[in-house]
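A reminder before we start the practical. When you read a complex entry, don't treat the lines as separate problems. The point of joint prediction is that each chain is placed relative to the others, so the output describes one connected object in space. Small molecules and nucleic acid strands, if listed, are placed in the same frame. In the example below there are three entries. Take a minute to note the order of the lines before looking further.
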Amino acid sequence: MSFLTVQNLYKSFGGNRAVDDVSFALAKGELLALIGPNGAGKSTCFNMLYGILAPDKGSVCLDGRELIGMKPRDIWRLGVGRTFQITAVYASMSVVENVQMALISHHRKTFSAFTRAARLYRDDAMALLNLIGMKDQADRAANILAYGDLKRLELAVAMAHDPALLLMDEPTAGMAPGERRALMKLTADIVAERGVSVLFTEHDMDVVFENAHRVLVLNRGQLLAEGSVDDVRANPAVQEVYLGGGTTFGGDGDHA
Amino acid sequence: MLEISNIHTFYGGAHILHGVSLRVEAGEVVSLLGRNGAGKTTTIKSAIGLVRPRDGRITFDGTETTSWASHRICHLGLGYVPEERRIFSDLTVMENLEVGRRPARDDIPAWTTDTLFELFPNLAERRYNLGGHLSGGEQQMLTIARTLMGNPKLILLDEPSEGIAPVIIEKMAEVIAEFKAAGLTVLLSEQNLHFAKLVSDKAYIIESGEMRYEGTIAELEANSEVREKYLAV
Amino acid sequence: MAFYFAQLLTGMANASALFLVASGLSIIFGVTRVVNFSHGSLYMLGAYIAYSSMTVLPGIIGFWASILVAGLAVGLIGMIIEVCVLKPIYKAPELFQLVATFGVILVIQDMALLIWGPEDLFGQRAPGFEGVVEIFGERVPSYDLVLIVLAVVVLIGLWYLFTKTRVGILVRAATQDREMVSALGVNQSVLFSGVFFLGAFLAGIGGAAQLPKGSANLLMDFGILAPIFVVVVTGGMGSIWGAFVAAMLISVLQVYGIRFLPNSTLVLMFIVMAVVLVIRPWGLFGKPEAAGDHGSQGPPPKPFRQLDPSGRIIVAVIIAALTLVPLSGVNFLSVLFADIIIFCLFAASLHYILGVGGLVSFGHAAFYGGGAYVAALFVQYAGTPMELALMLAPLGAGFAALIIGWFCVRLTGVYFAMLTLACAQVLWSIVFQWDEVTGGDDGMLSIWPSAWASEPGVYYYLVLVLGVGGVLVLRAMAHTPFGYALRGTRDSALRTEAIGMNVKLIQWMAFVFAGAMAGLAGGLFVFAKGSVFPTEMEIATSFDALIMVFLGGVQSLTGPIAGASVFTLLQDWLSRFEYWRLLLGLLIIFIAILLPGGLAGAVDQVKALLGRAPKDEAAP
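Here is the predicted structure of the whole assembly.
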């Protein structure tokens, strides 16, 4: 039973077809990777799923509800979490406050004027930090975190309202190989434990091949291939437009 | 050709580089490896003068350039290709190249738009398009072409493989091989060891603002302990 | 028909100077990311210098050469400002540059007064263009045609410069990424100075060229500031074509507007801008601001912390000391300290949107003065008692903020700043022009407190309770979920929207809240003085508030209090000197260059030197 269904999505920018009839589905608890060359339409797709861009045509259904036409904040309320390629955290707040913010919004306390924010849902936030292994950094300022920790913090924020679907835009961009694997391992564990579905874009094929349950390949706005990791790796068309000769990433399990 | 000795660089109050040294000889391709935040970009930016080391010495081509303004270092023949590409998106491809144009040097053949379009045929087709309308891969090519217009003797490439498709990374490797054949010197910062192995002669590993390893790429390949320790691969 | 055509020409002639000055501002902003507030002053200098070279050096250089001389001289002055004032602080947060250029305004104002005196100076007419020409039977001053031609020539010249020359390409590239341009071998310093020269040159020409139509006077600097901001915002920041079209549109509509709705001049301008911005938020030819587009932001502030026990004791001691002031028996002290408390509240309310919310408002005086006028109007026309009027003041100001904020929060960064300034100017012009109701320039007099509070000592206690209470409410509101959400919109609007919060609604509500608190300060002010004048709403008052916040330090909740106190005392002391603006301006410039963290930052530095550095992650 698919949980997220994307049907016949179209989007043009000034005559240039950025996304051209893309359809796919995502099952509950599935980790689906969206890959493809730069400018293939991955970001456009992502932004349409999250209500940042309006498609010209098409439908995105989450658990039977149409998302097209909704604002990002309303999509979030339906249980969709999001992390960004360039981390978006609150630099002037502490780590735990970053998570508390998401909880405050989730419990609709944003406009509450008679409580102190620092006290609200602190325990829940600490539990989430515990999940990602950052409990000991709870009271540090977010702007002095190491890059890998920022990425983990984003994951905790995105998980705060217990989403059913997580959209991750290049989750490991800018990280060192070891950190990449650790972050994706963490994500995969959470997916397994909580039954969250994840859709992510990624350029690091090591990360994709190691973690994705299924892979979608976009090229020039169209779906070029779809299938298991092995299918996609062996697909000659994918090799030609995207993977190349395979000299720039490792083989299965071989990360030397 | 480029020698960085014992530089200390700060961002605001943060001490980023703790006495970093490295040498790049003429004609070499050298990789600077390390994880994010280790100090790769800061080292490169110190070399081109975008950040000023508080202590230490940088010499390029026999001239001390420590705390020179970027444009003067550029005039000496150091070319910089930034990590985020930093294309002028409101300018056409031709105008982007014009910004980078510098007079020819006596000792090396000058790059022209024609020779660059031969190297990057995609750009030739799109010469009157705005930089912002190019794909990520094309922008990567344009940022390199723009730097070449300054006829550099040494090119600094900051994370050239970050965020681009594997096929484009392979094209990058070819381009770097062509630079080497043309006698250009290259210093690149990288996280992708696969890519570094394809292109470079020598490698440095930086960690927490300090150099931890120096050796040929073959030595690094043989040394799994170092790879494990600093690159986690 | 002929009549309308003649009116059209008049409008286009009026647009000429506006276009020249606005395009200069736009070009400077594009490359250096500095909103040069002193651009109006450069325009004024253009007129004065042209006057001098026409009258003091008659015959030696003629009228036309004088215009060119004025342009070149102002260009040089612009370059000097760039080198001396801005060069040292390009890396500082953008507010520093704004405040520094405001210091330049003050300096130039007093220098002009010193050199040219307070009288309006009327220049000679353009030789050969003294008369009128008949167009379709309508008489049009021939000099108007000269001005139209000048604007078109400058437009074409700039277009050629920017698209066809290498220098122009470099300038456009630097507009996008100046650091990259310098890494590609372009001397950034020279480029910046050159751009400042060009921008100032255009302002100088603009000032000089309008001399035959008006005079050189000391009101020119602030006078043109709001119109050029409107033009730049309407046309689109950084677009020369936009500046041209918007200047034409606004000037022409104004000429027609005066015929049908006299007294509507600034309001009409505002309506044009509002319509354009609702349809195209980035102006006619503008582009959305990219993230991090507006200059250096400085390091992010530290997380808020509750005051530690020693801090609480200090606050308690200060409040206790304040309650003792009237006991001194010196009325002057009660009045002075009441002023200080009122300005603390005003500055703290601005800090709420500026420091906590990251929205730099240049028009906060609209709500301060607005609150003052609301209270005064109710007292005068409805016989409202003081107690009720003091409640109506924040409500009225909040209502104004509700309307103005609805437009303003659609924009961010510099656009937001300019729009708030323009809106404040509209309110100011309503108050200034609506003589029958507001008394215009003469203000409203005899607005005194109720009998029980008429003693300065007693009124002081009222100010103390409401003022300090207001400041504490503002502070508490920073710690509520709403305050956090507001800080969240500043840190990352993207993330805030992505966790289900409505960014614009939060900013709008914060704007209203800050406006209402400024209104309360205004209400307290009016009863303290017994009168109110349009000056309480003018640009200079908005800037005073900005300087207080900046002086105290933007990143600290205590900063604006310290800033307001020091600034009020300083102004009180400096105003004894004849050329106090000059001194204040120089002082502001020095502080911008030497004290990058404001007073609060300086205190931290001293503590650090004494080895008592505040803990790494906690802000006071």
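Discuss with your neighbour: The beta strands of chain A are 2-13, 16-27, 31-35, 57-62, 65-66, 80-83, 165-169, 197-201, 214-219, 222-227. What might explain this?
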